Amino acid sequence: MFNLPRLRERRRPLSDRVARARNEGVGVYLGEWAVDADEAGEFVADAVLTWCRETLGKTRRPWGIAQFDIALAGAGAYGARQTISLLGLAPGDLYPGDSVLAEIHRFLAGHDPVSHVAVALFSWGDATDAALST
Q1: 8-22 pLDDT, tens digit each
Q2: pTM score, whole prediction
C-alpha cells in the first residue's frame, strides 16, 4: 500500500538529495586529452571548450537549472601537476567574451608544460533532476 522508505526519502531536504546524487556521480562527465609538445595551447583550449559545450548540451535543466562546474587537471612532462576549478558557471560562460577561455589558457600556460589534460564537468541540472526523481 504505502512505500515508507520512499516517503522518508521525499521528506529529506532537496539539498541533501542533490548532494547525495552528486556524491553518487550523477551529472559528472569526464574528458581527457594528450597534449603534444608542439601542440599549441589554443588547440587544446578550444578542444576542451568544445567538449564542454557539447556535453552541457546533453544535460538536463529542470526549471532552468543550467549551472555547472568544471575542474581541470594537468600533468606536466616532468611530473608536476596543476589543477583549477571553475564553479557556478552558466552556459553563456563557454562562449567568446567570457573569462572561461582565458582561465583555460592561463591553466595550460602554467610553469610546467602540460602533457595531459583531464576535465570533469558537473551538471547541477542533472543532479537536481535525479534528486527530484527519488
Answers
A1: 555 678 889 889 998
A2: 0.82
